[in-house]
């Protein structure tokens, strides 16, 4: 399936850990967005890791699952960023 | 159609204008995310407005269009934010 994961994380230390976790599974495409194809089992693993990292009173993570990537179209305005080479 | 719009905007003044524009059409659900159902004509109008606001060398806006909202599932971890009452 195709997923888009967006996040608002209050603390820099937690933010760093969230990004490190997401980088193992998906592509970092915008400051607060990761996306890509992922198998349900891997997504489940990724979510378990994230749940152990975030502060449930402060942080928020949205996971949008799209069953078939044919059902989604992405249009980019402005620059096309890629943070995958960013050291975190 | 259902859309998710995410953005990275460098300057606060531009960021404010982008949010004000998006608020006319969609729901503000995370710091850098708006989403909701929108008619193609309205989306076209929204995009035209955004193109006139952003700096094409610095900013980026991603628009994910999902033809049928049945094809997307959203899971929330942590807090469920809503910025719609935020004054901008």
Automatic annotation (TrEMBL), chains A, B:
Look up the EC number in the record and give it.
3.1.-.-
Residue sites binding Mg(2+) per the record: 8
InterPro entries for this protein: CRISPR_associated_Cas2, Virulence_VapD/CRISPR_Cas2
Task: Return the broad EC class.
Answer: hydrolase
The residue ranges crossing the membrane are none
NCBIfam families from the entry? cas2
Q: Which PANTHER family match?
A: CRISPR-ASSOCIATED ENDORIBONUCLEASE CAS2 (PTHR34405)
Protein name per Swiss-Prot or TrEMBL: CRISPR-associated endoribonuclease Cas2
């Amino acid at each position: 399936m195709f997923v888009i994961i967006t996040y608002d994380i209050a603390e820099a230390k937690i933010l760093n850990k969230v990004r490190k976790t997401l980088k193992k599974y998906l592509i970092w495409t915008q400051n607060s967005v990761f996306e890509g194809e992922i198998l349900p089992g891997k997504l489940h693993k990724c979510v378990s890791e994230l749940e152990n990292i975030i502060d449930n009173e402060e942080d928020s993570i949205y996971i949008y699952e799209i069953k078939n990537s044919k059902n989604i179209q992405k249009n980019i305005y402005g620059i096309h960023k890629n943070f995958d080479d960013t050291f975190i």
